[in-house]
Every structure is written in structure tokens, then in C-alpha cells.
Write a structure and sequence with these properties.
elongated; five-stranded mixed β-barrel; alpha/beta; 2 helices; OB fold (Dihydrolipoamide Acetyltransferase, E2P)
Length: about 130
């Protein structure tokens, strides 16, 4: 085969692979779970949770609260950079307050023996 043809085929193959990789990684591979179902086996996984904000407080630009549904509650931390990103994208972060319902796609982490959900940038939806 001609060397030029092989180079063209290789470039096309790499380009298609990069596009497919981008599409796959940009999809939030999360599943909706009841908050009460989240246990230590979820550590490091991405989840989609919906619930009511309780016990919210702000500290040093960050927001901390419990998210509860009919099955349980879990701690949520929204870091300052995520709040800034939400504001830039026209999310009214002042609506993140006690009693409001919110949907979050985030990563489950273990901090000081307690499970937390840390939202992924742009995946906080106030209902």
C-alpha cells in the first residue's frame, strides 16, 4: 500500500477515536439513587441524588448542607469554584437554602468517617 494512504487512514482513525472518547467522557455516567441507599460501597462513584436541603451554612465561600429524602440524608459540600461556575452559568445560587429541593450529580467521598457528595461542576439543579 502507498505510504500516503496509510497515513491518511491513520489520521482519520485517530480523529474518529478522539471524537468518540470525548463523547463518552462528557456523558455523566451516573445513576439516580435514593439517598438512604448510599453506603461506603459508593465511595468513588458518581451518583445522581435529589432531596431537600437542611442544616445549610456557608463558610469561607463554600456551602455545606445535608440533603435528605424519604430514605435518608447525606452531607453535601459545594466548593467556592463550583458556586462561581454556577453563577457564571446563570444559576441563582442564593436559592441554595434550607427547604429548597435540589438535584445533584456528584462524587461520593468519605471524609472523617462520613459520606459526602461533592457535586460535579455544572451539575447542581435547584428545583
Amino acid at each position: 500500500m502507498n505510504e500516503n494512504i496509510l497515513v491518511k487512514i491513520s489520521v482519520i482513525g485517530v480523529s474518529v477515536s478522539l471524537v468518540l472518547l470525548y463523547i463518552i467522557t462528557s456523558q455523566n455516567l451516573s445513576f439516580h439513587v435514593n439517598i438512604g441507599d448510599i453506603d461506603r460501597s459508593f465511595t468513588g462513584k458518581t451518583v445522581n441524588v435529589t432531596g431537600e436541603i437542611t442544616g445549610m451554612f456557608r463558610s469561607k465561600g463554600h456551602v455545606f448542607f445535608d440533603l435528605k429524602d424519604d430514605t435518608g440524608k447525606v452531607k453535601v459540600v459545594i466548593w467556592e469554584d463550583i458556586l462561581e461556575f454556577l453563577e457564571i452559568n446563570n444559576v441563582n445560587v442564593s436559592e441554595i437554602s434550607n427547604g429548597n429541593e435540589i438535584n445533584i450529580i456528584g462524587n461520593v467521598q468519605l471524609y472523617r468517617g462520613e459520606l459526602e457528595v461533592i457535586p460535579i461542576r455544572g451539575n447542581v439543579n435547584i428545583m
